[in-house]
Structure formats: C-alpha cells, structure tokens
Amino acid sequence: MKKHLLFLSLITGNLIYAQVPEDAMRFSFYPQSGTARNIAIGGAMGSLGGDVTATFVNPAGLGFFKTNELVFTPGFTLNKNKVAFRETNAANKANNFALGTNGFVWAHNNRYRKSSNALSVAITQTADFNNTIKYNGLNDYSSMAEQFAEEFVTVKPNEVLLTNSAVPYGAAPAFNTYLIDTFSIGGQLFVKPATGYILDAGQALKQEMTKTTQGGMYELAVGFAHHSNDKWLFGGTISMPFVSYKSNTYFKESDTSSNTSNHFNYFEYTDDFTTTGVGLNGKLGIIYRPQEYIRLGLAVHTPMFMYLTDKRTTGIKTYLENPVESFTETSKTFTNGQPGESKYVQATPFKAILSASYVFREVENVKRQRAFITADIEYVHHKGSRFSSDNESPTEDEKAYFKQLNSVIKGYYKGNFNFRVGGELKFNTIMGRLGFAYYTSPYKEKELKANRMILSGGLGYRNKGVFVDVTYAHAFNKDVNFPYRLGDKANTFAEVKNQRGNIVATVGFKF
Known about the structure:
The protein has 511 residues and is mainly β. The protein contains 6 helices and 25 strands. Strand 1 (10-12) and strand 2 form a beta hairpin.
C-alpha cells in the first residue's frame, strides 16, 4: 500500500488543526435523498422533474409543476454492519429516525404563452451520520501507540520535542502516561512506544475498536424554475447546508502474551469529537424536450463552502508492568481545561449530472400518462475537496499546513461516477415504482474498496389533490475504516460492509 502523509498538526495560538482524509469525504460521499417517490426510482431526478426533490438535484425540474404542492416526508433507517479486521469478523446494528424532503412549491402557469414559473422552499437531510462500528483482532505488525510516537517526533522537522504541550490529542497524553517514552543511545534521543516491546518480541496485540457517530447534514433551499415553449426549462437553487456531526471513539490495545515483565499490559484511548457549521451552495439546471415524451437534463452543483467548528477531547489510560503502574491523562490538560477547538473553511467537490427520461403518453393532461423510465449519470470531483483557514490574516504556518493537507487529499482521492435509474407504472390512482443506484469508489488506491449499491421499490396513491407514497430502499455499502495512521509503514484498516434499509413515506397536497 502506498505511503501518504496522513497526519498533520499545527498549533496557532489556542487553535489546533488536525485532519485526516476522511474529513474530506464526510460531506460528499452519500446517496441521493428525497421524497419517497424519488427514493423509489433510485434517486434519478435529473431530468424527470415534477417533484420537490428537483430543488436539490436539477431545479429546472420544478418547471413541470402546474399546481401548488405541500410535502412531508418522515423516514426510519435500519442499519447493520459487518466488519472484517485482521482476519476477525464482527457485526452490530443501529436504527434511527430520518428526515426526507419536506417543502412547498408555488406554481404559476400561463397557458396562453405556454410558459410557467415555479418557486420552492424545501429542507432535506442530505447525509445521515448515525452509525456504530465495532471490531477487534490480533495485530503483530503495528500499534496505535506508534502513531503517537511519530507525532511526538515530527511536530518540528528533524527535532524531537522535549516538551509535551504540542500535540494535546495524542502524543502529549501518551507521553504523560508513559505509553511513549524517550531514551538516549550514544547521545541521540529516541522515542519508543510501550507496545514496541511486544511487537519486537514477535508477539501480537489485541486491538478493539468501537466508533459511534451521530447527526446529519441538512439543506435548506430556495429554488426557482422557468418553463417556456414546452421545450426548455431553466432553474436555479440557493441552498444553505447545516452540519451536525458527533463521534465517540474507544480503542484498546492489550498484551496477549503470558509474560508479565515486558513493561506493557494494556492502554485505552477515547476520542470525543464534534463538528458543527453552516455553508452556502448553488445549483443550476436545464431540461430540454426535443420531443413531447423525451426529457434531457444537465445540472451543475457548485462546491459547498462550509464554515465549520471542531471540538475535541481525548483521553489515555496506560497500564504498565514491571513495575505495575497505571496513568491517566486527557487533552484538556493542554487546552486550558476546555475541549480543543478549531475553526476552518471546507469546500466540498463540485458535481455534474447528465440525465434522460422517457415518458409514455406524455400529454398536457398528466392523468393520461401511463409510465416513465429515467436515468442519471453523476460525476463528483472528490479530489477537489479543499480546506482553508477561517482567519482573516492566516499565518504562514497555517497557509503551509492547509496547502500540505490539500495536497494529501488530491493524492488520496479521485473523481467518481454514480449511476441511478428508475421507473414508474401507473394504474389509474395507484403507481408502482422500482429503482437502482450504484456509487463507485472515490479512492485512488485499488486496495481501498468502497462503493454503494441501492435497490428500491415503492407504491404511490394520487386522487383529488392528495397523494401518499411509501418506499423501501435497501443499500449495500462498502468502505474502509482506519483505527490509526502511520507514516513509516503500511496502514492496517478494517473492511466495512454495511446494509441500510430505509422506510420512507411522503404525504402531499396539491392545491
């Protein structure tokens, strides 16, 4: 596996900047959300329109509205994980309530000029972070304590720090609890983790990991569309994403040998982390109807520019042998008794969506429409994620830090293509729907396998201005989870297979 600079740390006054590549992916690698109708057809809303979800995909689709509409979409998620780590398998479940797309569409139709306008105000849950991952295994190759040793050494180039105040979330608590320690050979200073005695003897450490995440990303948006000459539809959306993310990590390493004189018994590491913030995003779209029953769409989403605040508290408990002693330390010792805080700006990747739909018996009277098929191809420029300082006058150290971080992201990710297809068959007031979606890997390295596949289906009822849609979507997700990062050897990681079932219902009123 290729080596990357995966740990970066910078102290600027009381602010601590420390990101890993996963921070760039958190707000960009997720499936398309929406109403129950939209989810049932795989999320393929790029050219179909006529649904409030178009506000967040291709706002030109709002131009198909002829009447006003009010929509509510609650949901429930069934979550199951299977994790493989160091030839050991584990499984766990986590269920929660979810929020689909809710909103209002106001439409004005001018039949004489064959034109219409539509305005929407909507909110949706773009990403759902609620999950729990657990795994454990035996590792005779590396240790999390080695990451703390690397941090301790590399805070300043070619210089070992003799103070423990520079890296409050890992190296400093590790140093104070003797998980890492310094020693001298021939007048040269070295840093060694306590777990190194186990690994040097060719023995294994038992590693245990539990990570619970909560929260979501939500978008509040205003969309507008214009439909003219029954051929062209143009639309635009301004949206404001809100982020609320929380993670609690517990990691433990234990000596598996019967030797009580090898200096190390076990250590426990905890990490409580939150990210909150708000941003701004724009979406532009166009739909062209060369024939009455054919719709071709193109949409572009600008990066989301988000102003984020991270807060973090970590703790380490180390239990040593020969002599038997235990030590405890938290990061608050080095951050004035408060959680460490950092403020920064993150720009997510831009997106482009190309789509087409075929509507059987497309006529102005939608009651006579019988079916449709629709498909989207989406490109997401993941390697274009960028971080920058939130300070008006960033220091040279800050500029260098974010430049290096962005370079790591550019080398770690690639642009990926996502595919969505779906269809509907109408039986008077009842409709049946099916959909499929596939999201390809955003990682450059083939060893890191990640993708999402979603199968969906649902039923709809429409009569006298009232409609009810019910959908079930089952997602098969693959991703990787790194318990820690090392710069001088290949990184060990867990392979996560997630199955997520979404039960979604939409109630709407036309007037």
